[in-house]
Amino acid sequence: MSVEHDTQQAQGEGLPGVTDSGFSETGPLGPPYPIDARVNEAGRLEIGGCDVVDLAAEHGTPAYIYAEGDLRARARAAVDAFGADAGVLFASKSFPCTAAYRVMAAEGIFCDVASGGELHLALKGGFAPERILMHGNNKTREELQLAIDAGIGYIVIDSFDEIDRLAEMLPADGPRTLIRVAPGLKPSTHAYIQTGQVDSKFGIPLSQVEQAIQKAPNFVGLHCHLGSQFFDVEIFQAAAEVLAGFEVKCQVVNVGGGFGIPYLEHDHPPRIAEYARTIRDAVAEHFGPDTKVMVEPGRWLVGNAGVTAYTVGTVKEIPGVRRYVAVDGGMSDNIRPMLYQAEYTARIADRFAREPTRDVRVVGMHCESGDVILPEVMLHEPAVGDTLVVPATGAYGHAMASNYNGVRRPPVIFCADGESRVVVRRETFEDLAARDAG
Predict the structure, then answer these.
(1) Taking a C-beta distance cutoff of 8 angstroms, is the pair 47, 415 a contact?
(2) Distances in Å between the alpha carbon of 210 and those of 204, 399, 418?
(3) Of 13, 82, 303, 424, which shows the fewest CB atoms inside 10 Å?
């Protein structure tokens, strides 16, 4: 597959994280910051050549700030690593923003969707229908019909009920289907983001897969997904071996993904080349070299490209207990720490180059004691008015944001070559009542 890069698509070339010999996943500031993040002459954090403190002043906080060049570089690296013959899928659920869809489509990525809404956004964002794959453990007839009418490339079948629906609805020249297998593998990650174990709402049990293959219309291959945010590369070899246990010819094999990213400074997940080598070799070994490989990197494509900027509003000392630093966001813009104890780090963007001096707890402004963004982190003398930045929020922050406490959801700002642009505006107070019917 050849991808033409116009002037806009070429943004990000020459980034610190990209070299002539390949793709380096770490920039000057190291994990977990974007590959083009740096400290400027004023000692402040820059993303995509834009001063984060200035962005906070211009656009307000909280704000999701993305290095557009990082998004593009990761997409290209994934396509290069897996090969032009493979299908590298952008996970809509990680960052459902039309500007992100446009970037991924332009860089040669496929797309997975898990609802009619995500399908609508993917098409609006420029994905060719044949490069879209639909997931979901309980797709409605309406969603399936939308997918068929749009002419998408693939539907991943998750149940016998879905097979029965598609047998009635799916024309012979319609989307091809993959059977999602529950492989009985349990990777090391949080229980809430494990999906490949026996006891799962996802996939068809091993004992019923052959029956599903026989009944599925337009069948072309098998799929499994083990979960998210794990660093075990070899588990993909095990997944391919499980899928190869069925007497069936597969044109396509999708072993999922969920590649881990660094959230903390000491996190060092495998590199994309290692994931790619293991997966391609495993599929070739068990299914033959001509089998099309599909893969779902998940948050890997977007997670480290984004940071969230907040403004410190209160610093509260409880003598002999702890120091609280409260910011103007929290669980409404990043529910992951409260949902499954996701860990992050943070720095003061105004004094990014200064060594941390204070052990504090960073909390949000919501009416919940559990609204804790970082239970414990070292910051440099945090004070009211500081811009605090949390890295590695590029995946699932925007996607899972809510209006809890009547908070307006933050803007999404893309930065490249020293220029910023708002690709999703901040909600207004009127937006909060826009859907009220009476």
Answers:
(1) yes
(2) 10, 36, 55
(3) 13
CATH assignment of 135-301, among 3.90.980.10, 3.40.50.300, 3.40.50.720, 3.20.20.10: 3.20.20.10
Quote the pTM value. Answer: 0.92
Helices (H) and strands (E) in the chain, counts: 12, 23
pLDDT in tens, 244-261: 999 899 999 999 988 999
State the Cα–Cα distance between residues 144 and 14, nearest whole angstrom.
Answer: 42
Residue 310 bridge partners (DSSP): 388
Q: Where are the domains of the chain?
A: 18-67+304-432, 135-301
**CB 118, CB 136: distance < 8 Å:** no
Q: In angstroms, rounded to a whole number, what is the distance separating the alpha carbons of residues 120 and 92? A: 11
pLDDT tens, position by position, 181-209:
998 876 544 444 344 456 778 899 999 99
Catalytic residue list contains 415: no
Q: Which architecture characterizes domain 18-67+304-432 according to CATH?
A: Beta Barrel (2.40)
